[in-house]
Amino acid sequence: MLTTLLRRLGAGPWTDEDYLALGETVPRVELIDGGLLISPRGEPGHQHVSRQLALALHAPARAAGLTIYPAVNVRLQVDRIVIPDLVLAATDEDGLLMNAADVALVCEITSPETAVTDRVVKTQLYADAAIPSYLLVERTLFSLTLTLFQLCGSRYAEVGTAHPGQLLSLTEPILVDLEVDHLS
Description:
The protein is an alpha+beta fold. It has helices at residues 2-9, 16-21, 44-63, 115-128; strands at 28-32, 35-39, 67-70, 74-77, 80-82, 86-89, 98-99, 103-109, 133-139, 144-152, 155-162, 167-170, 176-179.
């Protein structure tokens, strides 16, 4: 279905309307400035870390009036829609898109196919959209590293990193200590 739709719509540039017309897709498809970024869905280990992280963030997020959303469409601006692994947002509205203004924290969990995009491209896109916090989870075959960034002006500043056997303490947008070893 994706191949048929891509052929029908052509190579681009893509708009929000074109993107939304794709509907549900097997690969993760994101819209960045009129182009499509297509990557595979996370494999089971990736999904496990995402679920463990969502469970760890759930109660503190609720206490702060936020909700956790896995793999939801976030509109950063016109013709720029991405799908972070996890989103903490101050909204519970139904719909196809969440607006960046409602997002308090985005989380990306790297995989070999997305590491550069998550570390470089998305970091800048999230900063440009003024999302206050960015949690980057670096996955390797044997370990996890958590790095929390806070928006400082128009760029993110690293405010904490945790390796196996360590805790990452978040104070914004929620209060929580994340134990790296409990996420893997």
